[in-house]
From TrEMBL:
Similarity remark: Belongs to the glycosyl hydrolase 15 family.
Organism from which the protein derives: Sorangium cellulosum
GO molecular function terms listed in the Swiss-Prot or TrEMBL record: glucan 1,4-alpha-glucosidase activity
SUPFAM superfamilies found in the cross-reference section: Six-hairpin glycosidases (SSF48208)
Catalytic activity line of the entry: Hydrolysis of terminal (1->4)-linked alpha-D-glucose residues successively from non-reducing ends of the chains with release of beta-D-glucose
Record's protein name: glucan 1,4-alpha-glucosidase
Top-level division of the source organism's lineage: Bacteria
Length: 472
């Protein structure tokens, strides 16, 4: 049998993972910022990809742009050079201005702030599409709330109140507009993160809850107690709805309820795990109290384990006989979008594979901080799938501070996260660029080139890894 997989470059075998991460971080930052306020676009527009045909991704998606801004805020916080810090600040302020513009434009349309896609001049995309998509306003509110708290720490309260949260109704500020939309809209159905199916989605709901909880904290900080109470009340109402997504027979957090599609989806979807990564940044993820579905929740662990097993067997490039570490992760098993057509077969995505790396890093960090691991029967399959002695943990066991098995578990999670990065590295283009998908048979990149989400995911995951490895 001829191996059709892309030949690896010599540096792949010679360069350490640490060295490659440093080099790829620099390239990811460069590629990402090229997609922010590109020439000819309204400042603040963030293109999903420079690809203008087959497929045309030269548009601003609210969801994608919000995640990109999360990465830019991280770059802003980490910047050592004043020029780099200023560049990131300017891009974020342009994004705020662009967001205010498209909010005002969207209000005039039929789906309001749930309009998902805009041309780079700020006008809404008018073609047929899955509308509304309510994850977008929630994600934008989360990331701009993080920015607002950062600016408040810098003493820029006036800027926050002018542009981000003005504590008035009707509001002219971006965050409050998104929070009001989310607080009133969350009971309704919408389209999923993949823009394909109408229903109630775990991904959207968990991010809506996080937006409302963090938005309440910001409202309280800015002397808007009535709004803070209202947002928290709506977040509590979401709790019971989110718990409905657990299927005890399958031991799976299903991605969609009340779905309106035929044939119905299985509900096994990587967006569930990706949702647990959103919202709380590494600096403030414990600021607002316990999350409803933290990364170490037994139901999240069980879902992650089942997804890893499913994609391991689904994609031929994941065959262990090929000798490549890590599992390439796709959207969902029934996926028929190949990056060009919707009547084909889906493939693994770099951004999702990187997201699973970040999940393992974040889980390791949580265990290290809490100094306690409780192994339940529901979560056991996840631990059994880890490398080394961690697979030998028994249900009912507790690993506490001082137990050498706790550090071995953290190390196993680090190695498992690194394996996901190694998988992406193996299929990456020689120049460090990444497209939307990796062919399930050959590993070649396909679909929209220079996908912004890939670079944002890489920067976020490797920063989480750096944080995990930093001295405690």
């Amino acid at each position: 049998m001829v191996d059709t997989e892309r030949p690896r470059h010599v540096f792949m075998a010679e360069e350490s993972l640490e060295g490659w991460i440093r080099r790829e971080n620099a390239r990811a930052e460069l590629y990402l910022l090229r997609n922010v306020s590109p020439q000819g676009a309204r400042p603040g527009a963030i293109i999903a990809s420079p690809s203008r045909s087959n497929p045309d991704y030269y548009h601003h998606w609210v969801r994608d742009a919000g995640i990109v801004v999360r990465a830019i805020l991280q770059l802003y916080r980490a910047a050592r050079e004043p020029a780099a810090r200023l560049r990131c600040f300017e891009r974020m302020m342009e994004f705020v201005d662009f967001s205010r513009h498209i909010q005002q434009t969207a209000v005039q349309g039929g789906t309001g702030l749930g309009e998902p896609r805009f041309y780079v001049d700020g006008s809404p995309y008018t073609g047929p599409w899955g509308r509304p998509q309510d994850d977008g306003p929630a994600i934008r509110a989360i990331e701009l709330t993080h920015l607002a708290f950062n600016l408040l720490e810098e003493g820029r309260r006036g800027l926050v109140q002018e542009l981000l949260y003005d504590a008035t109704l009707p509001t002219g500020s971006v965050i409050k507009a998104d929070l009001e939309y989310t607080a009133h809209r969350w009971p309704a159905t919408c389209y999923d993160a993949w823009e394909e199916v109408l229903g109630h989605h775990f991904f959207t709901r968990l991010l809506q809850r996080k937006a409302l909880v963090e938005g309440a904290a910001l409202a309280a900080r800015l002397d808007d107690p009535g709004a803070a109470g209202f947002y928290l009340e709506q977040a509590r109402s979401l709790d019971n709805e989110l718990r409905r997504h657990w299927d005890p027979e399958r031991e799976l957090l299903v991605s969609i309820l009340d779905q309106q599609t035929d044939p119905p989806r299985s509900g096994l979807d990587s967006s569930v795990i990706i949702a647990t990564l959103g919202g709380y940044s590494i600096e403030d993820h414990e600021l607002y109290g316990e999350d409803l579905f933290p990364v170490d929740h037994e139901q999240v662990l069980a879902t992650a384990a089942k997804q890893k097993r499913t994609f391991q067997s689904l994609y031929p490039i994941n065959d262990p006989a090929r000798g490549v570490a890590g599992i390439a992760i796709g959207r969902y098993p029934e996926d028929r979008y190949d990056g060009y057509r919707t009547d084909s077969i889906g493939h693994p995505w770099p951004s999702l594979t990187i997201g699973f790396a970040m999940y393992h890093y974040k889980l390791a960090m949580r265990y290290r901080r809490r100094r306690k691991v409780v192994v339940t029967p529901t979560g056991l399959p996840f631990f059994q799938g880890l490398p080394g002695e961690s697979a030998q943990i028994e249900p009912g066991e507790e690993l506490l501070e001082g137990d050498p098995r706790l550090e071995r578990l953290v190390d196993a999670l680090l190695r498992e996260g690194d394996a996901f990065l190694a998988r992406v590295r193996h299929h990456m283009n020689p120049d460090g660029s990444m497209s939307e998908q990796m062919n399930r048979f050959t590993g070649f990149q396909q679909g929209a080139a220079h996908l912004s989400m890939n670079y944002a995911a890489f920067l976020l995951a490797t920063e989480m890894r750096r944080y995990l490895l930093s001295p405690t």
